[in-house]
Prior knowledge:
Blueprint: H1 2-29, E1 43-44, E2 52-53, H2 57-64, H3 69-73, E3 78-86, E4 92-98, H4 106-117, E5 122-123, E6 125-127, E7 130-142
Parallel strand pairs: 1-7
Antiparallel strand pairs: 2-5, 3-4, 3-7, 6-7
Amino acid sequence: MKKALLLNLMLLLSAVRLYAQTKVADFETELPTVEKKPVSDSIYKYVDEMPEPTFNLNEYLAGNMRYPPDALDNGIQGRLIVKFIVNVDGSLDSIHITGNKIINGESLEREAIRVVKNMPKWKPGKMNGKHVRVYYTQPITWRQEIINR
């Protein structure tokens, strides 16, 4: 009787063990797969090599910015931060003003965006030796004493 009870107990334990292994195997096959984005679709804030203009940025800004007449007449001045993406081909995209805005300075914002949109291509940023898209911020200061009509 003891042998029969022991044999039944062993069979029962081995069946539970087989069932548990089957469930683990099923679980492993049901795991979701995570799709990785290609590097070129990502937009980075920090990279191994940051993008750079292929021209003198200060000269470009000074030579191309025009103080809007309404802002000039009303004494509106201040600092704007223009944020944009430098693409893998060096072109600029998603240009907008970020951070604090200048009170009644909408025309200054439009002019800053216009000037950045018309910039020549940049040298793109690099991550792990590959060209990637990178966020870039450029401060632009509007002061009436340094910008001519």
